[in-house]
Fold this sequence. Notes:
Radius of gyration: 21 Å
Structural class: alpha+beta
Shape: globular
Number of strands: 13
Strand order of the largest sheet: 1-2-3-4
Number of helices: 12
CATH superfamily of one domain: DD-peptidase/beta-lactamase superfamily
Largest sheet: 4 strands, mixed
Distance between the termini: 14 Å
CATH class of one domain: Alpha Beta
Amino acid sequence: MKPNLLSILLLLLIVSCQPSKESSEEKWLSNASPSEQGFSSTFETELDNYIQTAINDTIIPGGTFLIARNGRIVYHKSYGEIAGTNIKNEGIYRIASMTKAITSVSIMQLVEQGKINLDDPVYEYIPAFKNQVVLDQFNSSDSTYTTLPVDKPVTIRNLMTHTSGIVYGSFNPGKIMAVYDQFDMNVGFTHPTWSTEKWINRLAEVPLAHQPGARFSYGLNMDVMGRIIEVVSGQKLNTYFKEHIFDVIGMEDTYFYLPESKHDRLVPLAQKINGTFMSTDQLGMSALTDYPKQGPRDFFAGGAGLSSTALDYARFIQTLVEGGGDLLGSEAMAEMTKDQLPLVINDYENYPKGPDGSFALGFQLYQDKPTKKSPKSPGTYE
C-alpha cells in the first residue's frame, strides 16, 4: 500500500540477477569496492552528487541507499534529516507494500509443503469468503448499492495476482471508496482495536469491485493471504515471519511493531508543506506517527504492515536473487516468478496487455525490456 504522505525514499537495488561465482557464506552481502564489481571509477561520486542534488532541490528529504552486485554491497549511505533527526544506515523504515513480497514468499513456503494449493477457493481457509458478491449499482445520493453473485469463487492465485476484485478503497475515489468507507475498510497498516482475524472477516463482507479474474486491481489481497498463513500454520503472522523468514536469513530489525529499545531508530514520515519537509509529529498526524511504535499487536497487515532497514531487506532480496536460498526451493521460485495473468484472467486473449510488465505471484514481472527509460532488464520481478 502506498501512503499519500511522502515517506523517506528507501532505495534498495540488487543490480545483478545472477549469484556471484566467487560468493561464499562469509562474503555474502559484505562490502566491496564498486570497481571490484564492475562499476566505473566515478560511480560513487556521481551517485553522491545526484542524491544530494535531489535533497537540495527538496525532491526528497533524504533516505538510505543500498546497492549490491554479485552479492556484495558496493554502496550503502544515508543522507538528509527530518525535523532535526539525521537519517542513518541503521534507520528503520515503514516499508509499506514491500511487505507483500515477504508474505508472498511465506505463502509459497506453504505451497511447497503441500499445505496450500494455489487454485483452492479462499473460503476453504476463511469461511467468511463463502458467499461473496460483486458491486453492481451505486446510488451516490444515499450511498446505497446493489450487488450480483460471483461467477466463481476467489482463489489463492487470484489473491496473489490481484485479480480477485478486492481493491484498496482509498485508491479508488467514488463509489468504491464510499462502499469501503461503510465497512471501515480504508485501513492498511494497523487498527486500534481489531485483530487480523476480525479485519479480514469484515473485508469478506465488502462487495468485490469486479468479478474474480475480470482484471488486475491492486488491493488488500496480500492482507487476506496473511490471515491464510495464520490459519494454515497455526501461528500469528508476526511469529511465522520471524521463525520462517527473518531468523533464517538474519533479518534482525524487521517487525510489525517495534520493540521499545528500537523506537529511536524509526525514521520519521515526512510531508512537503510550502516547500519544506515536515514530520508527521510536527503536523500532529498521530495515527501515522504512532505506528509501528504502538498498536494492538494482534493486527498484522500482510500487505503493508512491516518496518525494516535497508540492510535487512537487502538480505531478503539477495536470497531471492540467488534462487531462494534457505527460504524457497527452485520449483517454488520458478512458479512465483512466472507470468500468471494467462492463468487467472477470464478472457486473457482479449485482455489489454501492458507494455511495461505483467504479474507473477505477488510480484510485478517484466518479461521484455520496458518501453520507458528504465534500468529494468527482462526477467526483473519486483
